[in-house]
Amino acid sequence: MAQFFKATPKNSTKNRILKNIKIEKLDHQGRGMASIKGKPIFIDGALLDECVDVQIMEDKKRYLKGTIKKINQSSRDRIDAHCMHYNDCGGCQLQHVEQSAQIVIKEAGLKSLFQRFAKLNNISLAPSVYSSPWGYRRTARFGLQFDRKRKELNMGFRLAQTNQLIKQKICPVLLPQLEILIEPLHSLLNSLDIKEHLGHVELLNSEQGAIVLLRHLKALTKKDTLRIEEFSNQQQLNFFSQPQSNEFKLLVGVNKLTYSLPLWNCCFEFSVTDFLQVNAQVNQKMVKQAIQWLALDENDTVLDLFCGLGNFTLPIARQVKKVVGVEGVQQMVERASHNAQLNNVNNSEFYQADLSSNDIYKQQWAQQKFTKVLLDPARAGAFNCMEFIASLEVSHIVYIACDAVTLARDSYLLLEKGYKLDKLGLLDMFPQTKHMESMALFLRC
Fold first, then answer.
1. Per-residue pLDDT for 40 more than 50?
2. Which of 60, 212, 253, 296 is most buried, by CB atoms within 10 Å?
3. Is 420 a domain residue?
4. Nearest-angstrom CA–CA distance, 182 and 238
5. Are residues 171 and 250 in the same domain?
6. CATH number at residue 74
């Protein structure tokens, strides 16, 4: 007779409540960390030295993840969240932390990443660059979901770690002129004939006023177009629609959208689908610091990699002999060239190139003699072009990163190639969130 054996279930702590867990440190994302029988546990929302009861949400081989069930001993840095959606919304992670403590947490996280990936200890950070903690975001994308049972459209950010949307009423990190549009915009979209066929909606700000970009999967009806026109005129905003293709159409307002960096007398035209730095205050301070760290003079020829629409390139051009901008997206190269003409910048060149390829050395622009380099890559970093950058043997390299992990990783290669880390600093582009940008200056030894 065959016998069947049932495996003994693994002794898992998932969903268990662990009592009186002392938070020993924070990770680079601001999560509390403790140790359970030698196994690390990451606890969302917990602060240093707090004592908490924790519900285990994930039990992995090497670590645990949990959420706070009860705070038994609170940190002096803990405050009440400003936003009514904070406990549900996945957009912010640090509203429960006083602003100056948020900076301290991120600075410590930045140092720890460089210790881990770049093998650098005892790092002294430059003063952090920061902005107003609220009302700073000039761009935001809201999800749209049609509830077939209730026959209504939901609009908002996603619930933390889910695909469901919160019912967004406010968002205090948005610029006030954008935040006040949330509820009336939701009402408008809920009134459209094609409300079952909407993808997402974006809010942006420009010198021409607020902008709405609506992504839809079915053509707008004539009634919908009239509703949008009436709404846009009432709210005095620019409204663009974007069907299934990548093209967009202006329905109300102006096509020419701009932002400025007045310190360098630069005005930038941009499209509603272009990448913009989210925080205008930090952006201006960031450009200023990058220029200071590069120690530019009139004899410099600067290479600006991942240049976008020229956010760094044009201010740099005001102070040097020549600047060359390189970008992976041809549309952005054209935009940067146009912005150079718009600002009467005649000492700049722009090229399209895949900066992750192995043939960078062979490109025409790469044959020039550069004295300094600036790069501002996307979240994936610039690992594949670090060898090329090091081979240029420039005196100064300024690296701006939206992911400190990739900056620390890429830095190690520069350190091996004869550069030293001279300065490192936090750019708090996203207050109230775990996200941090950073800037590093490398000097050739």
1. yes
2. 212
3. yes
4. 15
5. yes
6. 2.40.50.140
Q: Does 202 fall in a domain?
A: yes
Quick: pLDDT tens for 10-39: 445 667 999 999 999 999 999 999 998 899
Q: What's the burial of 299, exposed, middle or buried (CB within 10 Å: 0-12/13-18/19+)?
A: exposed
Q: What percent of the chain stands above pLDDT 90? A: 93
160 domain residue, yes or no? yes
pTM check: above 0.85: yes
Q: Which CATH number belongs to the domain containing residue 319 in this structure? A: 3.40.50.150
Q: List, for residues 150-166, the tens digit of each pLDDT value.
A: 999 999 999 987 889 99
- Of 257, 286, 321, the residue that ends a domain is 257
Residue 432 lies in a domain: yes
237 and 164 in a common domain: yes
Helix (H, G, I), strand (E, B) or coil at 203: strand
Render pLDDT for 252-272 as a digit per residue (tens, 0 to 9): 999 999 999 999 999 999 999
Report d(CA 106, CA 130) in Å as an integer. 12
Residue pLDDT, tens place only, 105-152: 999 999 999 999 999 999 999 999 999 999 999 999 999 999 999 999
Contact 288, 398 (CB under 8 A): no
Q: Where are the beta strands (DSSP E) in 286-428?
A: 301-305, 322-327, 348-352, 372-375, 396-401, 419-427
Most distant CA atoms of the chain, gap in Å? 91
**Active site residues per annotation:** 402
Same domain (yes/no): 201, 242: yes
Cα–Cα distance for residue pair 274/194, rounded to 1 Å: 26
CA pseudo-torsion sign 129, 135, 141, 143:
positive
Number of domains in the chain: 3
Integer angstrom CA distances of residue 277 from 106, 197, 254, 426, 427: 19, 30, 21, 15, 12
Q: Which run of H or E residues covers position 190?
A: helix 182-191
pLDDT band at 227 (very low <50, low <70, confident <90, very high): very high
Residue type, 316: I
- Phi, psi (degrees; rounded to nearest 5) at 405: -65, -45
Question: Do 285 and 408 lie in a common domain?
Answer: yes
298, exposed or middle or buried, with CB in 10 Å at 0-12, 13-18, 19+? exposed
CA angle 331, 335, 341 (to 5 degrees): 150
pLDDT tens-digit readout, 294-325? 999 999 999 999 999 999 999 999 999 999 99
**Can you give the residue range of the structural domain that contains 320?**
115-131+278-444
Q: Count Cβ atoms within 10 A of the Cβ of residue 49 and give its class: 0-12 exposed, 13-18 middle, 19 or more buried.
A: middle
